[in-house]
Design a protein that fits this description.
about 25% strand; three-stranded antiparallel sheet; Acyl_CoA_acyltransferase; N-acetyltransferase domain-containing protein
Length: about 70
């Protein structure tokens, strides 16, 4: 998954809503896991992802990245 928000639309809940939509749409289509790579410096995005139930772990191939993942029930 990849979500990108233009700077003028940040801090308005757009990313939160889009992430929720991605999770629900994937679940409805039978997807079991969603996963994304995130720059570990992007703390705002990582916090939103955590709030929506995604788990964050170090990326074994690149110390600059983390893997964010959610198992969909």
């Amino acid at each position: 998954m990849a979500i990108s928000i233009r700077s003028e639309h940040k801090h308005k809940g757009t990313g939160w809503e889009m992430l929720g939509y991605v999770c629900e749409s994937a679940r409805a289509r039978g997807v079991k896991v969603i996963e994304s790579l995130e720059d570990r410096r992007n703390r705002e995005a990582i916090e939103i992802e955590r709030e929506q139930g995604l788990e964050v772990e170090d990326c074994p191939d690149d110390a600059r990245l983390v893997i964010v993942r959610k198992t969909l029930g």
